[in-house]
Amino acid sequence: MGLCRFHAYYAADRGVSIKTLIYQSFNLFPICFRPTIGLDTEGDWKLFSAFLTGRQVLRFIGPEFGNDASRGVARSDPWKVAMWDEVKSVIEANQSFVISSHVNPDGDSIGSALGVYDCLKALGKDAVVAMNDAIPDAYTWLDPDGDILAPASDADIARLGAADVVVVVDANGWDRLGRLRKPLEESAAAKVVIDHHPYSELITPVSVIDTKASSTAELVYDLIDSMGAPLTARAADALYTGILTDTVSFRFARSAPCAHIVAARLLSTGVDPSRVYDQIYNRNTGARTRLMGRALSDIRFTGCGRVAWLTVTRAMIEETGALSSDTSGFVDVTMTIAGIGIGIIFVEAKDGSVQISLRSRPEIDVNQVAVGLGGGGHKNAAGAVFDGTLEQAVKTVTAAAVAAL
């Protein structure tokens, strides 16, 4: 038996005991073997404790390594089909859907949203994708017909609450949706979450949250594959984009082969990796390039040279004719510097807040820094919004970063 991990699937009132699930359905070793099963986060253990106290929460298990490493490949995998049962039931029972994601959309949020959108449209459903912020230029090629409402207008947002279902991808908290939070959270629609970020609590019982997945796009591929739904050429490009960008060109694809397996399947459908890379990374505008130059020319260091940070002011954005979204990816440049453990970028937003992105080497956890600021993300890539001046943000966050080294 290969090593196993818990894939987050939560469903209300399934009526299946954890012992039955483990011993009869998957014939695994006793669940007391924590290193084997892989309960990694405090949230994992809280949810697992719910099993033992009889709460109506369910989490499915699937193979990760070895000869069984077929997640995202074999549609017949029983655990994989079960993982998506509740989501598929919601899709089959409803007609209209709103798909949304976190503020400042990136390749994974956009790719995942478009993957779900094309899947729903192929199934004859009505669907719309709405985002709080504009789509960065690096990803507009995925949406030539303007299917995504980004940024969604007030009039657009007012209509979203009438949908049958709200699907949140690449985020698992309402606070991550910006202006879309209130109308979507308070709507009578059924709620579905598909994500791979660490979580503290569930915003809906119909959630698939796999913190071991390389990206949400990897999970969306699983959903489409398990449903037997058509995979459009655009969806394949979008999902590949999500995996490529969230793994930083497969540098952080985790230890499991799942991301590479799914990527290979997407390539087999006709995705051109050179074209995708070129569209994302080799289409910088003059304004973005000027802004990057301004930011890099004033790079700062602290923590004995192990923390590097960039600042982008509103004046810099306006003077170069760039957009706030053009700063996407700037922080990654800090991690190309020898000896840097943590890289940070501070971007002044129009509302006076400061948007913060953090990156780190594999052994350093910047998610905890972001969580301390009210944000979150992954161990090596996280972010937050700071309510205060740029100077206050730099002082607070750099101190926390040095402490995290």
Describe the structure.
The chain has 405 residues and is α/β, with parallel strands linked by helices. The chain has two domains: 1-283, inorganic pyrophosphatase (n-terminal core); 286-404, Diaminopimelate Epimerase, Chain A, domain 1 (Roll), CATH 3.10.310.30. It is 39% helix and 17% strand. The chain is built from 17 helices and 14 strands. The strands form two sheets. An eight-stranded mixed β-sheet has the order 2-1-8-7-6-3-4-5, sandwiched between helices. The protein has a six-stranded mixed β-sheet with strand order 9-10-11-12-14-13, with helices on both faces. α9 (216-227) runs antiparallel to α10 and α10 (233-246) packs antiparallel against α11 (258-268). The longest helix is centred in the N-terminal third of the chain and has 16 residues, at 107-122.
Task: Please render the helix and strand layout as text.
Blueprint: E1 4-10, H1 18-26, H2 34-37, H3 42-52, E2 60-63, H4 78-83, H5 85-93, E3 96-100, H6 107-122, E4 126-130, E5 148-149, H7 154-160, E6 165-169, H8 181-185, E7 190-195, E8 207-209, H9 216-227, H10 233-246, H11 258-268, H12 273-281, H13 286-296, E9 300-302, E10 307-312, H14 314-320, H15 330-334, E11 342-348, E12 354-360, H16 367-372, E13 376-377, E14 381-386, H17 390-404
Parallel strand pairs: 3-4, 3-6, 4-5, 6-7, 7-8, 10-11
Antiparallel strand pairs: 1-2, 1-8, 9-10, 11-12, 12-14, 13-14
Helix pairs in contact: 6-9, 6-10, 9-10, 10-11, 10-12
